[in-house]
UniProtKB/TrEMBL annotation:
Keywords: Membrane, Signal-anchor, Transmembrane, Transmembrane helix. GO terms for molecular function: O-acetyltransferase activity. The keyword Transmembrane helix applies. This is Trichome birefringence-like N-terminal domain-containing protein. It is a single-pass membrane protein. It comes from Solanum verrucosum. Belongs to the PC-esterase family. TBL subfamily. One of its GO terms (cellular component) is Golgi apparatus. Pfam families: PC-Esterase (PF13839), PMR5N (PF14416). The chain crosses the membrane at residues 12-29. Its main location: membrane. Coiled coil: none annotated. Residues 85-137 form the Trichome birefringence-like N-terminal domain. InterPro entries: TBL, TBL_C, TBL_N.
Length: 429
């Protein structure tokens, strides 16, 4: 017994020595700015720490601290104050230095060049470590396997502009990175339609590109936006179990970025129509379709609020920290937001409002900036224009901000379906 104990102690010391060697090696890599490798190895280091800790006796002299272990089926939203409703969209950003992002970008080879910031040369990665904390409740981390179990046999559609494609890429990667790649199916052949499928769960997550939600004829001249007709892809929306919609950004484009020439309204082509009036007609067209075609016993509908841009005087170039001034407010597309609020309030079908605008507006650090590619060329290598003028301050790096949107989508599903999680039965959604 004594010999066995000595052997065990020697093994423990050997393991600990290996752990320390890895730690020193990681510091060396970090010092040499090998950011991507450092992050990947740090994941391995935490996993090794967990394994070593499992092997040590709880009464031994040697302890290794590690991140708190979370249950595989964790899905609890804990109320902080029973007098308040659980509003998951009101809170603050907390920097979690030891909390790794949900996935490494290299785990999801289908991420577009537009959002693959580390691959495109971004040298910092602190933007990946900010976590959203609600004021009145504790929101669980996104759990990919739990999400897949809850979605078993179901179909999720995400419809909208490139910001909703940003969200689709995030959700697809969050789920893809939790299961073997061989047990997935991806169809990325079209820029207008993308699909991820988890075979063992029979779960599909589809993206339909339609920045206006209504029909847009961009092939013929003049280019016509048909305000009273839904996009033709709507024939494929019906029957989905979860729907996530957005629109807004393309409506406010001006000059050479304006997409349409004329509106089609009440059977006539018109150009003298106030933008807000046109947007309200289009939103009503979408709302009428939802009210007439959605089966309340089967489908949950979300509308994601507008994602804020940071294109102002300083933009997002060279920004590596969030905006800490809590009084900071952006008024980007405020008039359109009021129309969305008014439209949703009049609908027969209850639509969950994924209100990410306010919490996203402080994350000026989380955009691709010059660490994106356009037409195959990295923006940072375009020397003809100042970097501030070509920075992408609309979309978001992945891993990054859209992962929080999907974490809140996950939390909203937990709140809306407490029967799946008994610990939520006391909450008011």
């Amino acid at each position: 017994m004594e010999t066995t104990s000595k052997i065990t102690q020697k093994w423990m010391l050997c393991a600990f020595g290996s752990f320390i060697s890895c730690f020193i090696f990681l510091l060396y890599l970090k010092h040499n700015n090998e950011a991507v490798n450092f992050r990947a190895l740090r994941h391995a280091m935490f996993n090794m720490a967990s394994s070593l800790d499992d092997s040590f006796s709880p009464h031994g002299n040697l302890e290794i601290s590690k991140p708190a272990r979370r249950r595989e089926d964790e899905g609890d939203i804990i109320q902080k104050n029973s007098r308040n409703k659980c509003n998951i969209f009101e809170g603050r950003w907390i920097y979690q230095s030891t909390e790794s992002p949900y996935y490494e970008a290299s785990q999801c080879p289908f991420l577009s060049e537009q959002v693959s910031c580390q691959k495109n040369g971004r040298p910092d990665f602190d933007y990946e470590n900010w976590s959203w904390e609600a004021h009145d409740c504790v929101i669980p981390r996104f759990n990919g396997r739990d999400m897949l179990r809850r979605l078993r046999g179901k179909r999720v559609i995400i419809v909208g502009d490139s910001l909703n494609r940003n969200q689709w890429e995030s959700l697809a990667c969050l789920l893809y990175s939790t299961i073997p790649p061989s047990r997935t199916h991806l169809d990325l052949s079209s820029g207008y339609y993308k699909v991820f499928k988890a075979k063992d769960y029979n779960v599909t997550v589809e993206f339909y590109w339609n920045p206006f939600l209504v029909q847009f004829d961009s092939i013929n001249a003049p280019k016509v936006l048909r305000l009273e007709k839904l996009d033709l892809s709507s024939q494929h929306w019906q029957g989905a179990d979860i729907m996530v919609f957005n629109t807004g950004h393309w409506w406010v484009h001006r000059g050479k970025f304006k997409a349409w020439d004329l509106f089609e309204y009440k059977g006539r082509l018109v150009d003298e129509l106030k933008l807000e009036s046109a947007f309200e007609v289009a939103m009503r067209t979408w709302a009428n379709w939802i009210d007439q075609n959605v089966n309340l016993t089967k489908t949950t509908v979300f509308f994601r609020s507008i994602s804020p841009e940071h294109k102002g005087q300083n933009g997002c170039y060279n920004k590596t920290q969030p905006i800490t001034d809590m009084s900071y407010v952006t008024h980007f597309s405020e008039s359109l937001t009021k129309i969305v609020d008014r439209t949703l309030s009049k609908m027969k079908v209850p639509v969950r409002y994924l209100n990410i605008t306010k919490l996203s507006q402080h994350r000026v650090d989380a955009h691709p900036s010059v660490y994106a590619k356009k037409k195959g060329q990295e923006l940072i290598k375009r020397k003809l224009k100042p970097p501030q003028s070509i920075s992408d301050c609309s979309h978001w790096c992945l891993p990054g901000m859209p992962d929080t949107w999907n974490r809140l989508l996950y939390a909203s599903l937990l709140l809306d379906h407490p029967i799946d999680s008994p610990s939520l039965s006391h909450l008011v959604s």
